[in-house]
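Narrative of activities, Objective 1.

The group set out to show that a structural description can be obtained from nothing but a protein's sequence at a throughput compatible with the screening campaign. Below is one input-output pair from the validation batch, recorded exactly as produced.
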Amino acid sequence: MALIDLVVENIVKIPLESTDKPDVIRELVQILKDAEEIYDYDSALKAVQDREDKQSTGLTDGIAVPHAKTSAVASLKLAIGISPDGIEFDSMDHQPSKLFFLLLASPGMSGPHVEALAEIAKLARSKALCKALVNAKDAREVVELIAGD
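Output recorded for this entry:
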């Protein structure tokens, strides 16, 4: 399954309401709960928090990719959050993160999980696309930008 197949308006939130890392993670998991994409909010949240406690998923250039494997999903799930002002996320370059891609996969889905992470990394290399995503006015524009990439 290609990452683009997961990107629909109801899993995109712009702008995020959160102002700190723990709240960002809760808000992204809530997006999936509201979209009826996860079985169990609490176990999904705990899986992401436990993964984040091991090593921050705040990358560079304003991108963060919190992710985890959990039995709270049957297949690969994605939530996208955008914070134009940026949120401190313990990133590698010590800069605030603006684009958040939350990935959840069931425990036996190593292949699709790794492929999705690779697709996000590829997308993140396009500075123009990342800038356009941060400046998008709504979820529909985010979907269109990613679909057009």
